[in-house]
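Notes to self after the Tuesday call (sharing in case useful).
The group wants a holo model before anyone commits to mutagenesis around the pocket. I volunteered. Ligand is NAP. Logging inputs and output together so the record is complete.
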Amino acid sequence: MNALITGSARGIGAAIAIKLAEDGYNIILNDISEKAFENNDLPEKIKALGVECYVKIADVSNYEQCEKLVSEIKQLGTIDVLVNNAGITRDNLLARMTEADYDLVINVNQKSVFNLTKLIGNVMLRQKSGNIVNVTSVAGIYGNAGQFNYSASKGALIAMTKTTAKELGSRGIRCNAVAPGFIRTPMTDKLTPEQQAEMLKAIALKRYGEVEDVANAVAFLVSKNAGYITGQIIEISGGLSM
Ligand code: NAP
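Result:
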C-alpha cells in the first residue's frame, strides 16, 4: 500500500507520513525544494518503521510537474492514499493584499488539489479503490481577517472534497478533509506572541494543537474504521470554533 503526502518535509505533512508509516504504508514524501530534505532525517525515520520511503521533489501547483510525479509513483504499484497537505500563507488585510500573493496562495493551496485529485483520481478509478484526504483549515469554514486568499483557497477545498466524494464514491473511493485550527508548526510560529495568546483564549481545550492531533485523524479517515465516511470535514481545533 502506497501513500503520497504533499508538502511533507516537515510540519503536519511529516507527522502524517510517520503515522501512516506506522500503519504500514509505504510513504512517498514530497516537497517543492531539494533543500527541504537536506539535514532532514525524516526518510530514515520512516524506513526504520519497516516500510519503503521515497522522496519526490515537485511543485504541486504545477500541472506538468504533477503529471511527472504521478507517472513515477505509478511505477511503485497502486496509489492507495493521497493526502493533499501542501499549503502556504501570504497574509495581509485585503486592502493591502497584492494580486501576486492572491494568485500564489490560490495556486499552491487550491490548484494543487485539482492537479493531483484529477491525476491520482484517474488511477484510483481504474483500481476501484483509494482514499483522499484534503488538509483545509478552520479559516476555510469561518473566514479569517487578514487571510482573504488563504480562506478562499481552503473554502474551495471543502467544496472540492464533497464533489470528489460524490464523483468517485461509486467506485469505492472516499474523500474527506481535516480542518485544523491552531497547530504548532513553522507556519504558526510566524504569528506574533500577541496573536498566539489571543488564539489560546478562544480554544476550549486551552492548548494549541500538535501535528500528531491532525495525523491521527488522517490515519483514521483512510482506515477501514472510517469505511462509511466520505465527503466530511473534520475540525481538529480543540473546540476553537464553537
Ligand atoms: P509548513 O510547516 O509550512 O509545511 C508546509 C510544507 O509544504 C513545507 O514543507 C513547504 O515546503 C511545502 N510546500 C509549499 N509549497 C509547496 C508546493 N508548491 N509544492 C510542494 N510542497 C510545497 O505548514 P504546516 O503548518 O505543516 O501546514 C500543512 C497544511 O496544514 C497546510 O495546507 C496548511 O494550510 C494546513 N493548516 C495548518 C495549520 C496550522 O496551524 N499549522 C492550520 C490549519 C491548516 P517549503 O518550506 O520547502 O516551501
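Two things stood out.
The domain at 2-182+209-236 is CATH 3.40.50.720 (Rossmann fold).
The mean pLDDT is 96.
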